[in-house]
Description:
alpha+beta, Alkaline Phosphatase, subunit A, Jelly Rolls, ten-stranded mixed β-sheet, 11 helices, 29 strands, disordered N terminus
Amino acid sequence: MIKTPFKTRLVSAIIAGLSSILLWSCSTPKTEKPAKQPNVIIILTDDQGWGDLSMSGNTNIKTPNIDKLAQNGVVFDRFYVSPVCSPTRAELLTGRYHVRGGVYSTSEGGERLDLDETTIADNFKQNGYQTAAYGKWHNGMQYPYHPNARGFDDFYGFCSGHWGNYFSPMLEHNGKVVKGDGFLPDDLTNKALNFIELNKNNPFLLYIPFNTPHSPMQVPDVWWDKYKNKTINKTHSNYGEENIEHTKAAYALCENIDWNVGRVEQKLKDLGLEENTIVVYLSDNGPNGRRWNDGMKGIKGSTDEGGVRSPLIIQWKGKIISGKSVEEIASAVDLLPTLAELAGIKLESKKPLDGKSLKSLILEEHVNWEDRFIVNHWKERTSIRSQQFRLDDKNRLFDMKKDPGQKEDVAQKHPVQLKKMIQYKQQWKTEVLIELPAKDLRTTPVGHPNFKYTQLPARDATAHGNIKRSNRWPNASFFTNWTSVNDSLTWDVEVLETGNYEAIVYYTCSEDNIGSTIEIRQGNNAIQKKISISHDPPLVGFEKDRVKRQESYVKDFIPLELGILKLKKGSGTLSLKALDLKGKQVMDFRLMMLNKVR
């Protein structure tokens, strides 16, 4: 027997082994690399009606970029939101009716989303997503109501219900006061584009709640020039009630939004992210004025069809059939479960959702979808929508397929449907509306251990004595007419952590009024500072207002550093008053910042 040399046997073994590996690799199916989780971009406009898009049939306006979203994705033909801003935002964030989350107003604390609610950003962040929000938050200002505490890693914009100036205004970035850069919607879009660029290799959730076309109707010349001499062809059904100049301004602002939507789309295309990004477009309520809305009854603030019907477009290139239209009714509470299921996200909400996933309606054909009831509620008004009917707040029944203007009460023709919807309304009020407390016992938090900044704006203060608010709408207002040492401002607060806080007041004061000493006090702890620098800028805003505004005009307020104030943990009153008066007025007040000192 001839023995093979060791080296020869070794080489033969290696060759045989390699052959086996190659044979196995050819015969065994390859394991594909898991697909990257899709990015999600939610674009929410403010006070844009269903009819404020050319895709809706409005020939007064051109919105080609938003129309293109619809052509590339799916359009929900009957999609419903709340009648006003903060409730819709709460429902979008949580998948639950806004009253469940403590939202009952648009200002003075009633816009805050309860702290035990889980948001869409919380869920996506827990699943490895980078998260950001740029724009109008309107669901709480002081941390932990602040967006940075609700799952958003980065926030730039404002937390109030509306803003008084759209041109390089005072804003905030993650709690810190900053100055905006240019026209606000453009500025917000710039931040969004930068976020997309930075996270092109990471899954991200990007929320862009634009501030327009909410009033004040401030429009840059480049957009206004197109409309100022334009004839408006399609008008509101009651033409005499329409303010044509307001309509023109709204359309100009909507075309600016469309341009910015196009910028977002182009960024996705440039980075090769279109086929891995879900883009959602909607508005937060009906139009903020009487203008063309295809004859629907109601505008912003109304629970009728025109006050709550919103466009909804969902684009996911390569995944969603282009140009699909969904006739089944849907609601803002459906967005969280829908986006979570599309992205493969397991929801961690500790509370039951009111919404349901729309995934099958989006991705499948001929879906067996059961009829449902959608509730639209605001203040004391509750309206119920089924696929065919709307029961209004006065329990009148309308056939929405035949009568979108809600002109004929068909209750007597459909007694069974009437009874069914009335019963559902009563059940909803008993089971859902009851969750909203009769009195808001939530405090204004100051000094959360996890956050440096606390804003205490004029909006949240109570004025005593002669002090007057600059406007009846608190959100972007300031205080003036501070003419006595007996006048004061107070905040009922809950200090969450004992510590030292840098106190800064944003103020204006004319040259002939400087010299007064102001004091901030909590119990026995107080600091004082003399106003020694005059700053008396004019009111601004009217330069680009295309119609007279209802909201307050604003000014350029500057910071006055008062020093370090020690605050003790617990509930109590924080006060701001003058110890002396050197002129006719102490100052005009816009904002107090309390920044934690470590």
